Amino acid sequence: MPVHLATSDNNQLPLMSDTHESTMSLSSDEYRTIDQIRQKLFQLSSSIQSVKVDLERNEPLPKPEALASSAHILNYSLTQFNQIFAQHRQFLNAAHAYPLPNFPGTTQEVLLGQLVKKKLEPRAQDWVDEYSQATFGEEDAKKPFRHEQMRQLWDWAGPSSSDVVRELITNDAFEDDYTFAEREAGIENVVTGLKRTLGDDSDEDDEDGDKMDEDVGVEVEKSAEPGIDTKMPPMPLDRILAFTMTGALPPGFK
Amino acid sequence: MHELLLFTQIPASRHDQVLHVLAGVTAAQPIECREQNLIYMQTKLADVAVSKKAPNKQAPPAQRLSYRKLFRDLPNGVDGHAGPWKLRAEELPEAGITHVLSRPVAENVIDPTELEKFRGASIWYKYVNQYITTTHRFVNSNVIVRVSRLFLPPEGTGALEPLDAPLPNLSECRPLDASGTYLVEASVRIEDGGNAKLVEQATQELLAFKATLAGSVDLRVPDRLALDPRVKA
């Protein structure tokens, strides 16, 4: 249920700012701020809801690309929300809500309670506590990253990681037959399990074909074992078995 | 001990393929082994009353002279020692069983005093021949599959005393079957051949394995008398 925050003109729920000496209606600017925040929160909440539904109901799970784009949208909404919040920090920190006498407190008691309450719900507070604990290291765990530090880190990490990825993509690194480590150590030492040489360039396909033919040739030669002529008729199974029992060579055996 | 057996034969050109098939079916790589088998002919029946004599212990009905085998594992590489000699007494496969071959078998490591009966001018046994097997062995639950090639050692090996002859060198041996076929043996061993329920269960397992391989390696029942160990007069 969208909370209707209104000025006292609307006779519903006025907000009072401590920066003002006495009860005063909100300026249209302040009113717009609150409405913006409401909209952003609504967006954020519905995107979170839709990701949640995606994850719960889709079988199989959505593709990584889809998840990444959802995360991107969430991140974007959060950033926007943060920006608006930061812009109007002073006003928002000072503002607090109280009901007018004509607020229907008896019928809307729950809503009223939620609006006037300043502390978070215990569950939400636990959640905030849990995730405000930084876990970057034993030392750092005691003093969480400040917002500024976090931003510095991301200012550096974001561009530099995309630089690395861009380089990999422009070099066709993912199309290569060998890893960087293998290239550096020299590809002639790589155990590929193949007897033919993998071409450095793709235009050696013909040559590869020839080499495979040669390999087959080698295979045939190898199977020619001394004393064995596969063209001869096989010795009957019963004869072989009889030999293993009595040691008597079949008649005509030489 | 009792053995249920099926055999077949594959040409040399199919050897690698069959090994791959078996590796796939059994989900394991083959174990390579070499064995030396000496074949002896009994020249005097062991006194059945003296039951501690190993060869006849598990096969009291063997009233006829039979061929017996001494075998040992050979090292796969150049170095290494051969395993101890083991005596293997295979009886004639039972008649009237059509789906598989079923025969009593005794197999045990032979002790030195017993081994003396196989030497030189013993009145008990006479050396007949020997062969070497190179085997790839697979195990699929209770079924043991052996894909082997049989080799004959060079002429004159063991002419004097085969038990003490130096280890045969495989490169000097020649294949028994010059066309290079491999012998495929699938077997299930059970302790008690008299236990009908156990025999039935083992037979079913072997036949199920045969059905699995059907079309790829067609195991069959050879002529029962091809595995006749009895000494002909």
From TrEMBL, chain A:
Q: What ranges does the record give for the region Disordered, renumbered to this chain?
A: 196-235
Q: One GO CC term of this entry?
A: core mediator complex
What protein name is recorded for this chain?
A: Mediator of RNA polymerase II transcription subunit 8
Q: How would you summarize the oligomeric state and partners of this protein?
A: Component of the Mediator complex.
Phylogenetic lineage: Eukaryota, Fungi, Dikarya, Ascomycota, Pezizomycotina
The main place the protein resides is nucleus
UniProt entry keywords in alphabetical sequence: Activator, Nucleus, Transcription, Transcription regulation
One GO MF term, please? RNA polymerase II cis-regulatory region sequence-specific DNA binding
Q: Which gene encodes it?
A: MED8
Where is this protein found? Nucleus
Q: What protein family does this chain belong to?
A: Belongs to the Mediator complex subunit 8 family.
InterPro entries (alphabetical): Mediatior_Med8_fun/met (IPR019364)
User: What biological function has been recorded for the protein in this entry?
Assistant: Component of the Mediator complex, a coactivator involved in the regulated transcription of nearly all RNA polymerase II-dependent genes. Mediator functions as a bridge to convey information from gene-specific regulatory proteins to the basal RNA polymerase II transcription machinery. Mediator is recruited to promoters by direct interactions with regulatory proteins and serves as a scaffold for the assembly of a functional preinitiation complex with RNA polymerase II and the general transcription factors.
* Source organism of the structure: Acrodontium crateriforme
Q: Do the record's keywords include Oxidoreductase?
A: no
> Has keyword Amino-acid biosynthesis?
no
Q: Give the Acidic residues compositional bias ranges.
A: 200-218
Q: Which GO terms describe its biological process?
A: regulation of transcription by RNA polymerase II
Query: Which PANTHER family did the record assign?
Result: MEDIATOR OF RNA POLYMERASE II TRANSCRIPTION SUBUNIT 8
From TrEMBL, chain B:
**Location in or out of the cell:** Nucleus
Q: For this UniProt record, give its keywords in alphabetical order, as a comma-separated list.
A: Activator, Nucleus, Transcription, Transcription regulation
* A GO BP entry: termination of RNA polymerase II transcription
Tell me which positions the record assigns to the signal sequence: none
A GO molecular function annotation here is: transcription coregulator activity
Q: Mainly localized where?
A: nucleus
Query: Which PANTHER family does this entry report, sorted A to Z?
Result: MEDIATOR OF RNA POLYMERASE II TRANSCRIPTION SUBUNIT 18 (PTHR13321:SF2), MEDIATOR OF RNA POLYMERASE II TRANSCRIPTION, SUBUNIT 18 (PTHR13321)
Its family remark reads:
Belongs to the Mediator complex subunit 18 family.
Give the quaternary structure: Component of the Mediator complex.
Record's protein name: Mediator of RNA polymerase II transcription subunit 18
Q: Which organism is it from?
A: Acrodontium crateriforme
The organism's taxonomic lineage, starting at the top:
Eukaryota, Fungi, Dikarya, Ascomycota, Pezizomycotina
